Amino acid sequence: MHELTRFPLEGGGSVVVEIDPLPGTARVSRRDDLIEDAKGSFEAALANVRDAAASALATFRSMTKGPDEVEIKFGVKLTAQAGAVIAKTGLEGNFEVKLKWVREPEGS
């Protein structure tokens, strides 16, 4: 069963996110208390994932012959306790990285 968690927005308001409960835990609540409040803001939760993406991008851009395009894909999972984490996907892979080089015109 999925649970609902409310993440406050730094600019005001909030966003409610459906999350998977932690394994081995069961929620006991009153009917009027079905939404758990997250420990931090939505933006703060995504900050670590944003920093990880920026670091990965910087690594590929710093290659001696850097690619013309870099595409990094990964899933993001939100939890009330940890905020945003990079989600486990398919066959245990967390990142899908696509690098692209375009052949330079001859004579360049």
UniProtKB/TrEMBL annotation:
Domain of life where this protein originates: Bacteria
Residue span(s) of domain Trypsin-co-occurring: 7-102
Record-given protein name: Trypsin-co-occurring domain-containing protein
